[in-house]
Amino acid sequence: MIIGHGGNVYELARSLACEPKDIIDMSSNMNPMGPPPGLMQYLGAHLDAIFALPEADAKQMKSAAAEWHGISPDRLLAGNGTTQFIYTLPRILKTKRALILAPTYSDYADACRMQAAACDYIYTSADADFAPDIDALGQKIEGVDTVFICNPNNPTGRLIPAADLAPLCRRYPETVFIVDESYLPFVLNGDKDSLIHMDLENVFILSSMSKIFRIPGLRVGFIIGGKGVIQRLAAYCMPWSVNSLAQEAICYLLTQPAATNRFIESTQAFVDVEKRRFTEYFRDTPQIRFFPSETDFLLAELKDMTAERVWTEMARHRLLIRDCSNFNGLSDKFIRISLKSAVENEKAAELLRRVL
């Protein structure tokens, strides 16, 4: 197993001789307002679902997701988190050379390496606030069979509008684009920048339920594409890959769209306010620079200290942030902070200012 991720709350808890719940985990990009109201009570009342096998193809859950998105059920598959699809796609596609828009989530490259596929990178830069250059990206696609784009991107939080990304995908119909939209639900009016309704045969869209609903332990996500490519992918999917409680949770949430939409909209509004409030703490702090972000986390560049030093000092106070030095394309001067509750955000901002 390849593990290229950052902070581990369990490991830190062991080192501090405390419980994981005693640590404010701002290294993990989860909804600070989740899980949605009523979900825990619903799951508690349906624990007997684990006494039987789940639906082998998660058909009911797929139907709920299809109706939620307003697409045909044969355009999507359910899986054990989007990670299942990230690692499956290079094998199915027989990827030989992939292009990855970086810095980004390490699993895209790890999945390619597991299939002995070469990886090329095109990097966004701090000088441009990590805004992607679509023209430069297009120039790198020749000779590449698979492109990975996280949109909005982890760890930079930058978003490529659909008006820019969709024409690029159409321009290269022989190249497969894997577009990870797992953080798009955090973006204000983000639906307009989804590629889900484009129905392009060379595009796979990854949609995680873990982040927005704060249920990462249930491991559930979807992949969406054209009917033809999804049918091809389905032949490689294992039965019973989505557990019973995960299926119950998603059916519960997506079959009550009014309440779930209210929860998502409240999250977007909260994140928008807290991003501005958090960065305001550092307006007169030259030791750190925060970059624009469309989603629920903030990437920052340190001027005088290393990420490891700041991580260590924050961790001593039971507050876990993300040291971004192991992201391809970032140095040991970058950290990422995922927003939590207003109280926790304020505590983190005050502690970070003292550390700096």
- In terms of DSSP E residues, the strand content is 15-25%
Instruction: Tell me the CATH topology of the largest domain.
Output: Aspartate Aminotransferase, domain 2
What is the fourth-level CATH superfamily of the largest domain?
Type I PLP-dependent aspartate aminotransferase-like (Major domain)
Run of helices and strands: HEHHEHEHEHEHEEHEHHHEEHEEEH
Radius of gyration, taken over Cα atoms and rounded to an integer in Å: 20 Å
Proper CATH architecture of the largest domain:
3-Layer(aba) Sandwich
The structural domain count equals: 2
Q: Give the helix tally.
A: 13
Q: Poorly predicted ranges (pLDDT <50, ≥5 residues)?
A: none
Q: What's the structural blueprint in terms of helices and strands?
A:
Layout: H1 9-16, E1 24-25, H2 39-45, H3 59-69, E2 76-79, H4 82-93, E3 97-102, H5 107-114, E4 118-123, H6 134-139, E5 146-150, H7 162-171, E6 176-180, E7 203-208, H8 210-213, E8 221-224, H9 227-234, H10 244-254, H11 257-280, E9 288-290, E10 297-302, H12 307-316, E11 319-320, E12 322-323, E13 334-338, H13 342-355
Parallel strand pairs: 1-11, 3-4, 3-5, 5-6, 6-7
Antiparallel strand pairs: 2-8, 7-8, 9-10, 10-13, 12-13
Helix pairs in contact: 3-10, 4-5
